[in-house]
Amino acid sequence: MARPKIAIATFQHETNTFAPFVTGWEQFMTPGSWPAFCVGDQILETCTGLNVPISGFIETASMCDLIPISYAVAEPGGLVTQAAFDAICERMLTGIKAAGRLDGLYLDLHGAMVTEQADDGEALLLKRIRALVGADLPIVVSLDLHGNISPEFCDLVSALVIYRTYPHVDMAETGRRAARVFDTILRCEKLPYKSFRQVDFMVPITAQSTRRQPGQQLYQKLESLEIQGVLSVDLAFGFPPADIPNCGMSVFACGYDQAAVAAATATVVAALAAAEDSFDDQLMAVDDAVQTAGDLAKQAQRPVIIADPQDNPGAGSSGDSTGILAALLKHNIPALLGMFWAPEAARLCHKAGVGAQVQLTLGGTFPEQNGPEIVVTGSVKHLSEGRFICAGPMLAGISANLGKMAAVTLTLKNSGEIVVVIGSNRAQTADREIFRHIGCDPESYGIVVVKSAIHFLADFEPIAERVLFAVAAGQNPCKLTDIPYKKLRQGLRLGPQGPAFINPEY
Ligand SMILES: [Zn+2]
C-alpha cells in the first residue's frame, strides 16, 4: 500500500462570549504564549517537540506523508471576528485543495470557538471543509478538554479525541492518540461508528482539575473503556463562559463495535452522574483568601499561591482585574503578583528605567467586570521585552512573546512589598518563567498571586505550601448561577446539583 497522504492543520480558539473585546486576525499573529500563525513547512519547524497536539500527531504519523496546511491559535478571548475566521478558513481550504488527492485530514481544534456569526465555529469550519472534500474522507480531530461540543459537529467528523488532563499536560499525547486512531481507520478502510452524549449539568472551571477529584478518576477511567472494538472514549468538561446552546459537558466514543461504543459513552455519563456531588469549586472570598494566605505565609517554608481564576486570560478575561491587588493593599500583605495586563504602564516603566519611581494606573479598562482602576506609586525593579522560553510541564519549549514587561515594587505601610509583574500581550500565568525571566523567583516570595484558574497548578503546585482560589472581579465568572446566560439549552443545570436553566426562547 502506498503511503497515505494526510493534510494537517491547527485552528484553535477558546471563546468567552462574555468578554467585552473581540479576537481578530492580529491576535492570531501575536498569541502571547503560543506559536504565531504559520503555514506549510513552517509548522514543522515551529511546533516540533512542543506540547501541542499537531506536534504529537506529526511525531506518531510517520507512516503517512503529511501535508502541513496552516497553524492558527489565539489567546482565549471574546468572539472571533468573522473576518479572521473566514480568512483562516479560506487559507485552510486553499491548502487542502492544493494538496490534491488525500487519504485523510487531521485537524487540531479547540471545540469552544464562537464567531461573530456562528455559535459553533468548529461545526461551521467542518461544513466548509466537507463541502470541499466530500462526506467520506476520514477526518480525525483532536479537541481541548474545554470543548463545548455539538451533535452537528460530531456528525461531520470521522473520529474525535480529547485532552485528558487539566492542566493540559497531554496536548501532544492527544495528538499521538489521534494518529493511532487514524492509523486504525486507514488500515480498516472504513469509518468507525460514533456515539455522542451531552450531559445535563455543567461544572465550573475551578472544579475541573484532573489533579483533583473527581476529575482525576473520571479521566483515568476512559482508557479502561477502550476495549476490543472501541477506538477511543473521551470526555469534555466544557467551557462555561460561553452563552451558546451546546455549552457544557459531553462524552464521545468511536469504534467498530457499535454496541460497545454506545455502552462506553453510557458508562461515562453514569460515572459523571455518580460523581456529581463530589465536584468542589474551591472558591474563597477575596478578603478571606488574602488574609488566610497572610497568616499561612508567616509559618510557611514555601509560597502560598493565590489563584485569580475569574481574571484568567486563559479563559478569555483581560488580565487586568484589580480585585486581588486591592485586597493585598488594603490588608498590607506582601506578595508577588502577575501577570497583570497593562501595556501603557509597561511602556511608562520602560521609559523611566530600572530604579525610577513611577506612578501607574492599573486596570480600569473594563470597570464593570474587572473593577475600578488603581493608581499606585512604586519603583521599577526589572524590565524585559517579554520574550522567554517556558519551562514548566505544560508549556515547556514554547517561545513566549508578552511584549514589554516590567516588575514594579510597591512599598506597603508596614514596609512589606508587593511586586507586580505587568506585561503588554495578554497571557495566563501558567509557567514560572513568566516571573523568573524578569528577576522574580516565585520561590523567594511568601505569597504568589497568579492570573490563572487551573493551568498554573502544573508548574506552581509543586513549589506551593498551599493553593487558594480567590473570587475577585473578572470576565471569567466561576459561579455559574451568577452568569447572565440567555442561550443555553433548555434544562441544562448550572453546576453540580445546580438549578435548571430556563431558556426564554424555548
Ligand atoms: Zn482548555
Can you walk me through this structure?
The chain has 506 residues and is of the alpha/beta class. The protein contains 15 helices and 20 strands. The chain has helices at residues 25-29, 42-47, 53-60, 82-98, 121-133, 151-156, 171-188, 215-224, 258-275, 286-299, 323-330, 343-352, 367-370, 433-436, 456-460, and strands at residues 5-12, 38-39, 65-73, 104-109, 139-143, 159-162, 193-198, 232-236, 250-255, 283-285, 304-307, 335-341, 357-362, 374-384, 387-389, 399-401, 405-411, 417-423, 447-450, 466-471. A hairpin with a 5-residue loop joins strand 17 (405-411) and strand 18 (417-423). The longest helix is centred in the middle third of the chain and has 18 residues, at 171-188. It is globular and about 70 Å long. The mean pLDDT is 96. Bound molecules: zinc ion (ZN). The site of zinc ion has 4 residues, from loops.
Write the layout of secondary structure elements.
Blueprint: E1 5-12, H1 25-29, E2 38-39, H2 42-47, H3 53-60, E3 65-73, H4 82-98, E4 104-109, H5 121-133, E5 139-143, H6 151-156, E6 159-162, H7 171-188, E7 193-198, H8 215-224, E8 232-236, E9 250-255, H9 258-275, E10 283-285, H10 286-299, E11 304-307, H11 323-330, E12 335-341, H12 343-352, E13 357-362, H13 367-370, E14 374-384, E15 387-389, E16 399-401, E17 405-411, E18 417-423, H14 433-436, E19 447-450, H15 456-460, E20 466-471
Parallel strand pairs: 1-3, 1-4, 4-5, 5-6, 10-20, 11-19, 11-20, 12-18, 12-19
Antiparallel strand pairs: 2-3, 7-9, 8-9, 13-14, 14-17, 15-16, 17-18
Bound molecules: zinc ion (ZN).
